[in-house]
Specification:
D-amino Acid Aminotransferase, Chain A, domain 1; 7 helices; 2 domains; 26% helix; single chain; D-amino Acid Aminotransferase, Chain A, domain 2; globular; six-stranded antiparallel sheet; alpha+beta; 281 residues
């Protein structure tokens, strides 16, 4: 099946991707007025679905929208798009819908536009040698905890990293490490795993949550704490986490090796636990 013939869901109907159309007056198209969610599926099993849908509900509430479906209804919508023989992810986007004219103000009686598609997980690179990252000053808006479709700042920040042959931009504000442009961050220093505390300036990543659960289950020293750029520069290990890239070890930061420049033992330990959890949950 060619990509444009793949099955998608749009506003209650399944159809080939090439036939899926929205109005040019959709507020998601005009204003980026909407939210989205990315949910991994391993061999047809949705991973941490309840947590993803809980985050979706919080994002919707933050922009004054109501979740249109229950967990059961969402699961029923997703299933026809999944292949039980593949590792995939669900992309779900909800916009405020179509208004009669382009206007910054909105009414509460609009019908949301709901779009869902699936895609195969790309092979996870950099697991043998690690990846490269660079630090960039954060230029995003204040509500980074809302998974909004308005991702222009993230796109430009990550593209700056890619232009410099790095896989990710690690965002800095007021001398503190926040997260990646499309990921959360963990730092290992002197046997303690650190990650920035949850706040409005970082996304509440689901993979971040899973990793924290695994760390705590092993009673490994762990802190949710503000991380300075100095701590980052002298880290023993740096990891990036996301739903589609899982746990990525960073072995080079700003063109300098992280510690010895090889993947660290703590990453191997946590990644092994993560892979086991994927296989059984």
């Amino acid at each position: 099946m060619t990509p444009d013939q793949s099955l998608v869901y749009l506003n209650g109907h399944y159809q080939p991707l090439c036939d899926a159309k929205i109005s040019v007056l959709d507020r998601g198209f005009l204003f980026g007025d909407g939210v989205y969610e990315v949910i991994p599926s391993y061999r047809g099993r949705l991973f941490y679905l309840d947590d993803h849908l809980s985050r979706l509900a919080k994002s919707l509430n933050s922009i004054r929208m109501t979740p249109p479906h229950s967990t059961t209804q969402w699961s029923e919508i997703f299933q026809p798009l999944l292949d039980p023989t593949k590792d995939q992810y669900i992309y779900l986007q909800i916009t405020r819908g179509v208004a009669a004219k382009r206007d910054h103000s909105f009414s509460d009686d609009l019908t949301p536009t709901i779009f869902v598609m699936s895609a195969d997980m790309a092979p996870i690179e950099h697991l043998r040698s690690g990846t490269q990252a660079l630090t960039i000053e954060d230029t995003r808006w204040h509500l980074c905890n809302v998974k909004a479709t308005t991702l222009l700042a993230n796109i430009l920040l990550r593209q700056e990293a890619l232009d410099q042959q790095c896989a990710e931009a690690i965002l800095i504000k007021n001398g503190l490490v926040l997260e990646g442009a499309a990921s959360n961050i963990f730092v290992v220093k002197d046997g303690v795993i650190l990650t920035p505390p949850q706040a409005s300036n970082i996304l509440p990543g689901i993979t971040r949550k899973v990793v924290i659960e695994l760390i705590q289950s092993q009673r490994i020293p762990f802190q949710e704490v503000a991380i300075s750029t100095e701590t980052l520069d002298h880290a023993d290990e740096i990891w990036l986490t996301s739903s589609t890239r899982e746990i990525i070890p960073v072995t080079e930061l700003n063109s300098r090796s992280v510690s010895s420049g090889t993947i660290g033992p703590m990453w191997h330990r946590i990644n092994t636990l993560f892979q086991e959890k994927k296989a059984h949950d």
